Amino acid sequence: MMSSLGAARVDWLIFAALGFMWGSSYLFIKIAVDDFGTFTLVALRLAVGSALLWAVTRIAGQALPRTRRIYGHLFVMAMINIAVPFLLITWAEKSVNSALAAISTALVPLFVVVLTPLFVDDEPLHLKGIVGLALGLVGVIVLTGRDLTGMGSDAVAVTALLGSSLSYAAGAVYARRHVRAVPPMIPAVFQVTFAMIVTGTVALVFERPWEARPDLAAILSIAWLGLLGSGVAYLAFFRLLSRWGATRTVAVAYILPVVGIVLGFLVLREPIDARVVGRDGADHRRGRAREQPCWAARRVGRSPCRGSDPSPCWLIRPTLRTSRLRGCRLHDVGVSNVSLVERSPPSTSG
């Protein structure tokens, strides 16, 4: 039998792993978002996650709920804790960087601090929670103030990210109130499955996912998002939720910005700045290219990359106004403006 100290250490390790799995998801969404429709990307990652969770459930011999009421609660959780926030984040990352998307999750614990005392009797609001809420709001305003007061798609995307944080918070509180006595495996497998069915149906009707032509990076991103971000992560989350409660568990959201910003910088060369949003928004509006290594340039019209780095150009940043990248030159395409949706055809010039 594991001692209480040993169990506490395991919980903290799970907490750290959960922060990495969810924090890295913003990077992989950014990599895959150009190759799939919004609903299609979400449905695919959930399909992978659902397959993993059902396999774990069968292997563990976990009994399924016998009451319809539980399934109703699980469906509601699937919508507010997965479908809505996943769709909002995926859509927003078409126009903002992954670091900003990760930063937005810092609001989740703050929303939980407000919502939990209203709906969960054994988690009252304390003075330190009010102080934390105030400090957190100030921090988010500092980081996102320029885009929130700006005009255009960036401000709308930031609003969508804030909506995803509120939805996550509502989902955590709802789960704590209605399914706290259910084994962690059950809410994990059913909410991922229900969300997959809903988003997959919409994708089939409106996005024609069979016409998608993803590259290898996008396919691997879907695998990561499904197996870890939508599979293992939810097993970890509901274990912690059942042991720690909503307020303490969602503090994992404070880890996500750190992971998201670091990975965005290392992989996509997104800037690390005290005003990440302001700098990214300014660069986006001016159409100024950031220096990136050749392997982090999105493939344009299947044009090969030549120079010191032989790796393929598969991650070009939006509105890139130069064809020269560090150690890499896009061959004979004369890129002047790369859209997130349309890819320039290969040139036939000499």
Can you walk me through this structure?
With 350 residues, the chain is an all-alpha fold. The protein has two domains: 272 residues, no CATH class; 64 residues, no CATH class. The protein is 64% helix and 2% strand. A three-stranded antiparallel sheet has the order 1-3-2, with no helix packed on it. Helix 2 runs antiparallel to helix 8, helix 3 runs antiparallel to helix 7 and helix 5 packs across helix 6. The longest helix has 29 residues. The C terminus is likely disordered.
Written as H for each helix and E for each strand, in order along the chain, the element string is HHHHHHHHHHHHEEE
The first-to-last residue Cα distance is 72 Å
Helix content range? 55-70%
Strand order of the largest sheet: 1-3-2
Q: Give the overall shape.
A: globular
Taking Cα atoms only, what radius of gyration do you get, to the nearest Å? 21 Å
Q: Beta-sheet strand percentage?
A: under 5%
Q: What count of helical segments does DSSP give?
A: 12
Largest sheet: 3 strands, antiparallel
Number of domains: 2
Task: Produce the secondary structure layout.
Blueprint: H1 4-32, H2 38-60, H3 68-92, H4 98-104, H5 108-119, H6 127-148, H7 153-178, H8 185-206, H9 216-244, H10 246-249, H11 256-268, H12 276-286, E1 305-306, E2 324-325, E3 328-330
Antiparallel strand pairs: 1-3, 2-3
Helix pairs in contact: 1-4, 1-9, 1-11, 2-3, 2-8, 2-9, 3-7, 3-8, 4-11, 5-6, 5-7, 6-12, 8-9
